[in-house]
Amino acid sequence: MRQTFLFLLALLILALALAQRYFTEEELKLIQAGGRTYAEAFTGQRPDQALCSIHRNRLPADLLPQFLEEQRALIKYPADGKLMGDWRKGGEIYNDLRKANCFSCHFGSPVHLGGDVGPSLEKYGLNRGQSEAIQRYTYEVIYNAWAYFPCTVMYRFGALGGLTPEEIAHVVAYLLDPESDFNTKPAVGSK
Amino acid sequence: MGKGWQVGLMFLLLGIGLAQGEVDPREEAKRQRELLLQTAGILPTELVVAQGEELFNRKGPSGRTMAECDFGLGKGVLEGAAARLPRYFLDTGKVEDLDSRILTCMTRVQGFKPEQIRRSEVVAIAFYIASKSTGHRIQVRLLFPQERELYALGEKLFYARSGRRDFGCATCHVTYVGRRAGVLRYADVLGKDKSWTNWPAYRYSNDQAWTMQDRIRACYTVVGHPGPELYSLPVLALQLFMAYQANGAVVEEWPAFVR
Predict the structure, then answer these.
(1) How do residues A24-59 score in pLDDT, each as one tens digit?
(2) How near does any CA of chain A get to the CA of B38, in Å?
(3) Residue A145 to residue A159: CA distance in whole angstroms
(4) Given CB atoms, is A31 within the 8 Å cutoff of chain B?
(5) Closest CB to B162 among A33, A49, A116
(6) Whether A30 contacts chain B with CB within 8 A
(7) Are B159 and A162 a contacting pair at CB < 8 A?
(8) Contact B229 A22 (CB under 8 A)
(9) Which residues of B touch A34 (CB under 8 A)?
């Protein structure tokens, strides 16, 4: 009897450990008081978000290979395979506070003064060229930043549905195309 | 003529102040405060505090004023009371912050119906009661199990990542302290900035009177995450967690004057 109980308890603990939940059922009940839409963000917390929460955004090294692999697996590409779209459309997305809001954290926009939470992207395409490798890297970081920088603050635009693959390709073009305003016009605040 | 010139100058200086992203926000707020004081002769915070005092002394349907309520240090004692909130109250069996304790007072003691209570009145009363804690030290305790449970929830919420933008308080206010996204640099809310002592406050950039509840909700909603409802448990939990981190800090001025 006692042994069966212990066995079931061990099984339960193992199941919970594997699921990587951050909040307990009891805590989730308390959070319900915050309102339906607020609570849903926590009851629907993704396992990767739970992992970042548990480790306070600094994953232990032994978890990294699997984590990165899982994040890479979330990346999808545009149907036509083109990673660079229309830079003009990309500029609208990049510089829209309610859309991608890139300028708030990154310096380099010719439209808005950029922040310094993320690295400066000033003249991004001029400094890096337009090789397949840099297109792919840029696209993938925007699609799912956690595939390169686990638990970073940058939104996972493609992975969590903030932007479509085509929209991301437009932003890639805005950053890379040598004809793009991003590369031809001076960044706001540039010295 | 003289007044018009002064008001014009004030807006010009305000414009310059808002256009420069790189001035120290605390110094800038002090400057704006002085400017308003010189031109208007009174601060917006003082106006809201005066309004709150009137509401505090207004009789409710039961014939009682808010002086009949206990804000933690005994009936009608306001001196230093806000600096010791949130805390557990035996009469309600709940942990309450300033906002929710005001709500409790208005409903249980003054006899108002919950739907009669306007948010702007609660904020004004919070401004008034908080003004009696200027110069006091934050003293928040984790004595009752309810306080400890709520603190633990607040800590977890603070470090949680959630929603479609992987929102998390700590992601900006721990990892990117001092960095800038938008106009202001991220405050070190658990550390040197003692952000708990910055609210309730008047925000001169958009003429709003906010308590910490409003501030926390805005943190979420500004990045498109649903915010917790006013007076709800998750807001209280986050507040208790932050207040406890600020223990011992002196309240420079309540209500504060911020950008």
Answers:
(1) 999 999 999 999 999 999 999 999 999 999 999 999
(2) 32
(3) 9
(4) yes
(5) A49
(6) yes
(7) no
(8) no
(9) 228-229, 232-235
Domain boundaries defined on chain A: 2-45, 87-184
Among candidates A140, A119, A132, A130, which has minimal Cα distance to A178?
Answer: A130
Place of tokens 């470090």: B159
Q: How confident is the model at residue A14 (pLDDT cuts 50, 70, 90)?
A: low
Is B172 designated active site? no
Identify the band that residue B88 occupies on the pLDDT scale cut at 50, 70 and 90.
very high
Determine which of B146, B162, B180 to mutate to test the interface with A (most A C-beta atoms within 10 Å).
B162
B222 chain-A contacts, CB cut-off 8 A: none
CA distances from B109 to A33, A34, A78, A95 (A): 24, 25, 63, 52
Q: Which pLDDT score is estimated for A191?
A: 80
**Residue pLDDT, tens place only, B136-166:** 999 999 999 999 999 999 999 999 999 999 9
Q: Which two tokens stand for residue A8?
A: 């079931």
Going by the DSSP 8-state scheme, the letter that residue B186 receives in this structure is P
Sign of the torsion angle spanned by Cα atoms B148, B149, B150, B156: positive
Report the alpha-carbon distance of residue B196 to residue B127 in Å, rounded. 14
Residue spans of the domains in chain B: they are 2-40, 44-131, 145-249
Q: What is the pTM of this model?
A: 0.88
Asked if the C-beta of A126 comes within 8 angstroms of chain B's C-beta atoms, the answer is no
Q: Which of residues 65-84 of A touch B (CB under 8 A)?
A: none
Closest residue to A117, CB basis, from B21, B165, B180: B180
Quick check: do B44-131 and B145-249 share a fold? yes
**CATH code for the part of the protein at B145-249:** 1.10.760.10
- ipTM of the complex, rounded to two decimals: 0.87
**Region A87-184: CATH code:** 1.10.760.10
Residue pair B175/B119 in contact by the 8 Å Cβ criterion: no
* CATH code for the part of the protein at B44-131: 1.10.760.10
